[in-house]
Amino acid sequence: MENEIRIDPRTNSTVIIAPNRNKRPSDFLSTKPAKKEGNCVFDRGNEDKTPTELLRIGNPWNLRVIMNKYPELLPNAVIYEENKGIYKVMGAYGQNEIIIDTYQHNVDFEDLEFESHKQWLNAIIERELKLYQMPRIKHVFVFKNQGEKAGASIQHAHTQIMATYFIPDLIKEEFDNYNKDESLFEKMLMNETFLEENDSFVAIAPYASRFIGESLIFSKKKISSCIEMDEKMKDEFISILRNVLKNTISIFGKIDYNLVFHELKDSNFRFHVEIYPRLSTWAGVELGTKIYVNEFPPEEFSKYYKELKKNLKTI
């Protein structure tokens, strides 16, 4: 396969696919993740070491939601917008929360049981509903940094929630592109490579993948956020998410990754989740031009993924 430039119709991102024919998935994993140390503030029994608790599930607890000790946004900040010369300045109003995914310190998110993942999703939905009741909140962003390369400062499995009174640029750009072409999702599915599928969701290896082993999980039904999921959709979302994470890790080895929710409540938007394995480092090209270089084509990732699934069925 020759190098080529691809443009993502969702985000308008420019990606250079620059395959190295001699590389296999395992070649991209440079180091093993560090072992988790004990005596973590997120462990059960250390509740007094964390900020205000907002939610707990189980007794003793299996999952907790707390305020972020080092928030970027503040619920008591003054809301304002003003121009300072050529710059626009806004008050840092909003809220940052942390979901402690599990009381188990040495278990990674992808290795949790199905019911623990279901509790995690229910906690996200409950907190989103609560955050949207805050004055002027327009967007709630859910994201996971799994591992040091993905930006996690604490090893214990956790997820972050950020509520803002503005819509982030990337979400806005996706929203605008969907509004320009309401059949964009259907057109994408006609051209993308499927990894997994069930009645409610489909997982793809996006044609213009910015990351090695990148995957997207789309809702087939037109829902704008996870708040709209019924119980069947919740179960099928958890099922496909677990499959994608476990199979991606089976291909590349134990990796660090980011997992992000893209949603926009009460809008003409298509809920989806994006998973970015952190197998390469963005450098001058990506940071200086927003042109992304991917050395492992999504077609190759899909090929290994399908071979893995085929072998699993025959065992």
Low-confidence stretches: none
Please indicate the percent range of residues in DSSP E strands (runs of 2 or more). 25-35%
Could you say what the CATH architecture of the largest domain is?
2-Layer Sandwich
Radius of gyration from CA coordinates = 20 Å
Helical element count?
Answer: 6
Number of domains: 2
Strand line-up across the major sheet = 3-4-7-9-8-13-14-12-11-10
Q: How many strands, what sense, and barrel or not for the largest sheet?
A: 10 strands, antiparallel
Termini separation: 32 Å
Mean pLDDT across all amino acids? 92
Order of helices and strands: EEEEEEEHEEHHEEEHEEHEH
Write the layout of secondary structure elements.
Blueprint (H helix, E strand, L loop, with lengths): L3 E4 L6 E4 L35 E5 L5 E5 L13 E4 L2 E4 L3 E7 L13 H18 L7 E8 L11 E7 L4 H12 L3 H8 L1 E5 L3 E5 L9 E5 L11 H22 L4 E6 L9 E6 L6 H6 L1 E4 L3 H17 L1
Parallel strand pairs: 2-15
Antiparallel strand pairs: 1-2, 3-4, 4-7, 5-6, 7-9, 8-9, 8-13, 10-11, 11-12, 12-14, 13-14
Helix pairs in contact: 1-4, 4-6
